[in-house]
Amino acid sequence: MEITLKELQQLDKNSYKLLDMRTEFEISYGSIPGSIPTTQEKLLEEGSLDKDTTYVIYCKKGIISLDVADALEEKGYKVYSLKGGYNAWLLDAIKENDDAEFAKKVENSIRTRYKKSIWSNFIRALKTYKMVNDGDKVAVCISGGKDSMLMAKLFQELHKYSDINFDVKYLVMDPGYSKENRQVIENNAKRLGIPINIFESDIFESVYNVEKSPCYLCARMRRGHLYAYARELGCNKIALGHHYDDVIETILMGMLYGAQIQTMMPKLHSTNFEGMELIRPLYFIREDTIKRWRDYNNLHFIQCACKFTDTCTSCNNENRSKRVEIKELIAELKKNNPLVEATIFKSVENVCLDQIIAYKTKGQKHHFLDTYDNKDNTVED
Fold it and tell me: For the chain, how far is it from start to end, CA to CA, in angstroms?
């Protein structure tokens, strides 16, 4: 059985239990207030529900939850699936808070409450790695999530108050978003006062039938399209919303799963688009801080814009599950060493090549035995 959001809102909240059956990763990006996290497996487990209680369950789009609700109804349980799922609630929540003064409130939170943890770290990354200079034209790339939307607001503030003479464009690429996801992005941009430039591609369709690493291929193709369109607009840099936690997780993922030591660089020259650079201005900003900023301003963003995630098993698997594993590992390590994240981050700034078995640079591998017998190549034991 299905229940619409309007019908749900008319019910007494004490008359039912609201269950969120999305993944822990998806829930971390936001959930309907008052909902209880669960899983499809747990819902279908015999005896996990009470036949005297009414339940409303939801997934991302109301597709999987409807099948589960029908199966449970056949067993005699009173279970409804929220029509449209979390996305339906998200669109409604954004409409409810359509306020002309909203953007100013968000901007004020950056300048005051989050000045130290967000604004100062944003400026520190720009200065430390010389990301934005006079004459630059930066394409701020917006995926629709919390990170890129925050980055867009930070660039708006920088453009208004900085002495640096630069220009900025706000890019949203639609690689085949569902109607709901695109609407969420457009509504959020409007509420936040971000003048977005939207261009379209068919990347989602192109990678849909790719069996091996479709998400990796999708990301590579999206970046190529962003570079190309940014250059058309006269930009020489694209800005992506990767944050501090992305950096340390990438370091550990490379070591534990890729057998290599490398990091997510704060800026890079493009190898395929001459004269273009990629910058990561959120490099020093913690993900938990971004979440607090989001929740403080009652903002709701999309988690994954891929329109296939409710029906495609490839999208929520390998790379994402590895990143979740790494997050859990870091959380466990922090119990004994609260500074472990800073230590991981600093480790790639203190690489001692004299005590490395081998390393690569510009595609060429160098081994310590190549110079081991040189008299001027001795180090303390």
Answer: 71
CATH of residue 42:
3.40.250.10
Expressed as residue numbers, the domain containing 134 is 97-318
**Do residues 19 and 161 share a domain?**
no
Residue 359: inside a domain: no
Sign of torsion, CA 85 86 90 93?
positive
Residue 57 token pair: 């369950």
**Same domain assignment for residues 76 and 102:** no
Kindly report, residue by residue over 263-297, the tens digit of the pLDDT.
Answer: 999 999 999 999 999 999 999 999 999 999 999 99
* Per-residue pLDDT tens digits for 41-79: 999 998 889 999 999 999 988 999 999 999 999 999 999
* Co-location of 242 and 273 in the same domain: yes
What CATH number is given to the structural domain containing 179? 3.40.50.620
For 114, list phi and psi in degrees, rounded to 5: -110, 25
> Quick one: CA torsion of 40, 45, 49, 54, rounded to 10 degrees?
40
